[in-house]
Write a structure and sequence with these properties.
Blueprint (H helix, E strand, L loop, with lengths): L7 H9 L6 E4 L6 H12 L2 E6 L7 H5 L4 H12 L8 E6 L5 H13 L4 E6 L2 H6 L10 E4 L5 H8 L1 H9 L8 H17 L3 H8 L4 H22 L2 H19 L7 H4 L5 H13 L3 E7 L10 E10 L2 H7 L12 H20 L7 E5 L3 E9 L2 E7 L9 H9 L4 E5 L4 E3 L2 E5 L6 H7 L3
Parallel strand pairs: 1-4, 1-5, 2-3, 3-4, 10-11, 11-13
Antiparallel strand pairs: 6-7, 8-9, 9-10, 12-13
Helix pairs in contact: 7-8, 9-10, 9-15, 10-11, 11-15, 12-14, 12-16
Amino acid sequence: MQINRDIMQPLAAWKDNPHSKPLILQGARQVGKTYLLKQFGQAFFENTAYFNFEKQPGLKQFFAGTKEPGEIIASLTLVNGVAIHQQRTLIIFDEIQECKDALNALKYFQEEVPGYKIACAGSLLGVAMARGASFPVGKVDFMNLHSLSFAEFLAVADPALFSYLDSLEKMEAIPDIFFNPLKEKLKMYFISGGMPEAVVALLELRDVAATQEALQNILNAYRLDFSKHVDNKDIQKIFHIWDSIPSQLARENKKFLYQTIKTGARAREYEDALNWLVNAGLVSKIHACSKPALPMSAYDDLSSFKVYLQDVGLLRRLSLLDPLAYSDGNRLLTEFKGAFAENFILNGLRRQFEGLPRYWRSGNMAEVDFLIQHQNSIIPVEVKSDENIKSRSLAVYRQNFSPGLSLRFSLRNINKEEGFINLPLFMVDYTSKFIHLCGL
């Protein structure tokens, strides 16, 4: 099964940019970084030279003895067995966080031989950077690869339906003949999520049991990472946090509570463990915003935040929600007080807007699910997991702050009113496009 990723276009632009630097491709384990880079090399280069520092630990000696790019390339050529050319060969350094000297050497490649095209990947690169592992600040380019978006999933599941959705250019209701199949495909996406292995199991093998197994294997691999790469003092704390995420999101007020992890747990004991999960790309930490003003980071309430998983399929599997819920109306979307829909919308928004979204709350009176920044505007976003859209929180926010545009996601059709739009949940990947259609 051929899975085309939206990030291929930015990768092609990176290749053609004469001023590009060695590339760091970040992303959690098993989101498809290695497959993507090999696919990119095959499509856009004459040759690909692939090196994995986890599987080939002997590579580290080439970087320990010298920082001279020419000497390093000569050694790598012997391993590769084929000449490595500037511009014509894509050099892939996989699991580069396992070799600090290789990370540091990127600086010298950028300064001395910028013609070599080097793309690096690693599932724990964020952790390595947080620890300051000889990182070549200012000498590399960055891109992030997430699990498949719903649009990428739909392009594989039903290309014709994807073409229709992708072609929408007007703020008009979608005919039922398209709307209802799109809703069903969204429910399918909630079974697999966007992890490539799970998507292939569901769409190509058409095997729900294999999808379940793929997701469980990924969760097991994450737990092995906790044991292998985390300081001993934090291992059990990470397990406690990880296992608590479904119950954190199942509450009406989804604010992260350390007491939910373990009786008597305190922030200062668990903060480092939570930050490890954030740096590993496994969870998103979304802060409350005390005032919707720019820059939003200046108004973060550091003591109040919510935690979401990086993939809705993994959240479903971790929550032990059976895929049979797919056949039970909208249950897959509405379970856990709409937490799956909320997590899904967050992941879609993260791909399109700079900076993490925030959320807004006014004591116990009102809470808006997310705030996103579009240019110099702050847009409140409400998430409803069904057709029932009754809520006073967004009305309270609009009354207090008079935003130029407000946004709701639900299972209702496209609707535009004065200063307000409703988009179906399955259109989250087109949020930026439709905001532009509103004139912002």
